[in-house]
Amino acid sequence: MTSTAVVPDGTVDAAIPLPYLVRHRLRETADTVTLDLVPLGEALPRYRPGQFSMLYAFGIGEIPVSVSAIAPGGDALAHTVRAVGKVSEAICRLRPGEVIGVRGPFGNDWALGIRPLEDDDPVTPLGTAPGEDLVVMAGGLGLSPLRPVVLQALSQPGAYGWLTVLVGARSPQELVHRTDLTQWHALGEAKITVDRAEPGWTGAVGLVTDQLRHAVFRPERTTAFVCGPEPMMRASAEALLLRGVAPGRIRLSLERNMRCATAWCGHCQLGQVLVCRDGPVFTWEQAAGLLAVHEL
Ligand SMILES: Cc1cc2nc3c(=O)[nH]c(=O)nc-3n(C[C@H](O)[C@H](O)[C@H](O)COP(=O)(O)OP(=O)(O)OC[C@H]3O[C@@H](n4cnc5c(N)ncnc54)[C@H](O)[C@@H]3O)c2cc1C
């Protein structure tokens, strides 16, 4: 690949993938891997939790994938990919030392663009008021886009109130980011539940929403972050509303088929919004109506 995505004024051309090297590959489950990527030359601008990349398997195709970790102060990025079709299978087959094309960062972030207006304006990097409680609810691979939220909260504990991480998976075999889950569980922050137990599983069995009933947080001072299959996100939002969390305090990440990621092709249009430009993170106030719209 000879073209460069960094144009003469120093900005990045969002249409041109940059070559990144697969530095490390971790098999998460039978069909899911996490790839740690480092730039071969120029690096993309810094990502924020909740943003996504377009990952290009050379000669095969390109797909949107959320960033699952952002190295502090570095250019390394992690992406966790499930093999469901032609492109994701090719990406999951990549080995350390091989090269992938990356465009990004795209989309808004879990902070919904809420940033300090002045240097002394107290807003956390997650777009919450200092000391607010955080509830993170993940279903299956939905944990990957949420992982940077938890890592951010744990890296600055003084900035947040109580942190609750509720993770659900169909079976123990399908849990991703197990090393993190073990650490978070040991810290008392994470509760993990599976729909179907297997021999040796000693954790909870049931839905992630069941775990919410026992979670301790102050609804009027809580921001919730939710990602997973759409039925799980609906059920989680409804359970949060029942616990008294306002719709504008519930944030969800929506996935829709995407092609360009630059608000040009319209593939990800949902009613009035383009998920690549206006999302992927929306509040439940916005998302409740959008989830009722069929994709194009
Ligand atoms: C903002 C965003 C973030 C994403 N983050 C991740 C991630 O972190 N990890 C990950 O593994 N995947 C993620 N995806 C989904 C990923 O982009 C799709 O799995 C991928 O496009 C499938 O392409 P393919 O060519 O491998 O399979 P295809 O042959 O195109 O599709 C295989 C199957 O997956 C379905 N599918 C395709 N695209 C999507 C989609 N966007 N949403 C739901 N179903 C889809 C198809 O309908 C089909 O049933 C994300 C999608 C979006 C829009």
From TrEMBL:
<feature type="binding site">
    <location>
        <position position="276"/>
    </location>
    <ligand>
        <name>[2Fe-2S] cluster</name>
    </ligand>
</feature>
<dbReference type="GO" id="GO:0016491">
    <property type="term" value="F:oxidoreductase activity"/>
</dbReference>
<keyword id="KW-0408">Iron</keyword>
<feature type="domain" description="FAD-binding FR-type">
    <location>
        <begin position="15"/>
        <end position="112"/>
    </location>
</feature>
<dbReference type="InterPro" id="IPR012165">
    <property type="entry name" value="Cyt_c3_hydrogenase_gsu"/>
</dbReference>
<dbReference type="Pfam" id="PF00175">
    <property type="entry name" value="NAD_binding_1"/>
</dbReference>
<keyword id="KW-0001">2Fe-2S</keyword>
<dbReference type="InterPro" id="IPR017927">
    <property type="entry name" value="FAD-bd_FR_type"/>
</dbReference>
<feature type="binding site">
    <location>
        <position position="260"/>
    </location>
    <ligand>
        <name>[2Fe-2S] cluster</name>
    </ligand>
</feature>
<dbReference type="InterPro" id="IPR019480">
    <property type="entry name" value="Dihydroorotate_DH_Fe-S-bd"/>
</dbReference>
<feature type="binding site">
    <location>
        <position position="268"/>
    </location>
    <ligand>
        <name>[2Fe-2S] cluster</name>
    </ligand>
</feature>
<protein>
    <submittedName>
        <fullName>Oxidoreductase</fullName>
    </submittedName>
</protein>
<dbReference type="InterPro" id="IPR017938">
    <property type="entry name" value="Riboflavin_synthase-like_b-brl"/>
</dbReference>
<dbReference type="Pfam" id="PF10418">
    <property type="entry name" value="DHODB_Fe-S_bind"/>
</dbReference>
<dbReference type="InterPro" id="IPR050353">
    <property type="entry name" value="PyrK_electron_transfer"/>
</dbReference>
<dbReference type="GO" id="GO:0050660">
    <property type="term" value="F:flavin adenine dinucleotide binding"/>
</dbReference>
<dbReference type="GO" id="GO:0051537">
    <property type="term" value="F:2 iron, 2 sulfur cluster binding"/>
</dbReference>
<dbReference type="GO" id="GO:0006221">
    <property type="term" value="P:pyrimidine nucleotide biosynthetic process"/>
</dbReference>
<dbReference type="InterPro" id="IPR001433">
    <property type="entry name" value="OxRdtase_FAD/NAD-bd"/>
</dbReference>
<dbReference type="InterPro" id="IPR039261">
    <property type="entry name" value="FNR_nucleotide-bd"/>
</dbReference>
<feature type="binding site">
    <location>
        <position position="265"/>
    </location>
    <ligand>
        <name>[2Fe-2S] cluster</name>
    </ligand>
</feature>
<dbReference type="GO" id="GO:0046872">
    <property type="term" value="F:metal ion binding"/>
</dbReference>
<keyword id="KW-0479">Metal-binding</keyword>
<keyword id="KW-0411">Iron-sulfur</keyword>
